[in-house]
Amino acid sequence: MPGFEVLYQAAALCLMFPDDDFRTRLPLLREAAPQLREFADHAAVTPPRELAAHYIEVFEAQPDHSLYLSVWREAAPAPSEELYRAHGLETTGEEPPDFLPAVLECAARTGDIQLLTGHRDGLDRLRSRLTDFGTLYATVLDAVCVTLPPAAPGRRTPPS
């Protein structure tokens, strides 16, 4: 499903900790990925400390909101540093290779969405949990998931 590279790169940025660099990229993010405008508009008017505290509350204080694909125990293998190197990419070592923003960035740079489709069930469960939690981060997952084929029947894994 080519053509979603800009969305995946923008979604990766949205799912990273909202530092000063994130805030400076919001206008570009908003224009480049219209699917993420609701999130970008909210982030733009939310005070930086409040946005950072919300990120911590959503992704660090809630174990069932993990951005690490290996937590979701999918049948698909978790990404590895070797996989990134095979695509000509390097990991920074700051986050493990199964960190969703890194996977999205890999998909954006290579056009290869196999890692995302292989973890579709986990992405759907994360999206559902974020929606139930009432965070706009769910809209980021909504935008990504709508670009992917549905999870294969019988691939459901037990909730973590």
TrEMBL record:
<protein>
    <submittedName>
        <fullName>Molecular chaperone TorD family protein</fullName>
    </submittedName>
</protein>
<dbReference type="InterPro" id="IPR036411">
    <property type="entry name" value="TorD-like_sf"/>
</dbReference>
<dbReference type="InterPro" id="IPR020945">
    <property type="entry name" value="DMSO/NO3_reduct_chaperone"/>
</dbReference>
<dbReference type="InterPro" id="IPR003765">
    <property type="entry name" value="NO3_reductase_chaperone_NarJ"/>
</dbReference>
<dbReference type="Pfam" id="PF02613">
    <property type="entry name" value="Nitrate_red_del"/>
</dbReference>
<keyword id="KW-0534">Nitrate assimilation</keyword>
